[in-house]
Design brief:
Elements (H helix, E strand, L loop, with lengths): L13 E12 L2 E12 L3 E5 L6 H9 L6 E6 L2 E2 L5 H7 L1 E4 L11 H13 L6 H4 L3 H13 L15 H13 L5 E5 L7 H14 L4 E5 L3 H7 L2 E6 L2 E6 L1 H6 L1 H6 L5
Parallel strand pairs: 3-8, 3-9, 6-7, 7-8
Antiparallel strand pairs: 1-2, 1-4, 4-5, 9-10
Helix pairs in contact: 3-5, 3-6, 6-7
């Protein structure tokens, strides 16, 4: 069936649906009949022990990997075997565990490139972009929202680790996504940086559907509307944070029985 951008499409409450996803690498089964549903507008946490397959799930959703079996739907559209770029056009964006920025370009230039890509304009670079209000205004708005307004003329390579995380998330937001995939955004951050990023993510709740993979359990349980627990490539439980805390199977499999 034909699919339009999610922001413009008629959406049911379930924005993302994974139905029986399987993925193996040789003899290693990483995803095993995985079922996952993310509701429109929610912040959904995906947790699990190391090696559970969390990043593989994000790679399958974003299109970096193709499932061996099963289906993946975005707003009812089958995206199981569509390209990364097609999924981005439909409104799916991802911020990676390892930052990927243009280090020699400024913060504002990085955000402007993301806006240009979203608008479908060619990269005529800064002689034209610097005068284009349709690029600069949304880029500047995202920069301010990410708390980087005073860093606009700083090369991305000169930013602190936490600021680079903020910029990367800002670049994803500059594409005006309907759904944002966050892959361990707190990784490597100190307490102050984690708190800052948690506040930025919390500010997005209800505005953008978010699937959050994160090892910082305090952040996940404070931010998420619902949490799914992944163990050996299977979702063993999906519920509210309070219910997940009390789930005996989850305690044994992941939270250490506490």
């Amino acid at each position: 069936m034909g699919c339009s951008r999610v922001l413009e499409a008629d959406m049911t409450d379930l924005l993302l649906k994974a139905d029986g996803l399987c993925k193996h690498f040789g003899a290693l089964q990483v995803c095993n009949n995985l079922h996952l549903g993310v509701e429109k507008g929610e912040l959904h946490g995906l947790i699990g022990p190391n090696g559970a397959g969390k990043t593989t799930v994000l790679n399958l959703i974003s299109g970096l990997l193709t499932p061996d079996d099963g289906k993946l739907f975005l707003a009812g559209c089958d995206i199981s075997r569509t390209s990364v770029h097609h999924r981005a056009r439909l409104g799916l964006a991802r911020a990676f565990q390892v930052t990927s920025l243009f280090n020699s370009s400024t913060v504002l230039e990085n955000l402007s490139m993301a806006v240009q890509a979203h608008q479908g304009k060619g990269f005529h670079f800064w002689s034209n972009a610097a005068r284009d209000r349709q690029i600069l205004e949304p880029a500047s708005a995202v920069m301010e929202r990410m708390g980087l307004a005073d860093r606009g003329n700083i090369p991305a390579g000169s930013l602190s680790h936490g600021e680079r995380r903020q910029l990367e998330m800002g670049m994803a937001l500059a594409t005006q996504p309907a759904m944002l995939l966050l892959d361990e955004p707190m990784a490597g951050l100190g307490p102050g940086g984690s708190l800052k990023l948690s506040e930025l993510i919390s500010d997005l709740k209800g505005e953008i559907t978010i699937l959050l993979v994160e090892h910082d359990m305090q952040a996940v349980f404070s931010l998420a509307d619902r949490i799914s627990v992944l163990v050996q490539g299977e979702v063993v439980a999906t519920d509210t944070p309070d219910a997940i805390r009390k789930n005996k199977l989850v305690q044994e499999a992941y939270l250490g029985g506490t």
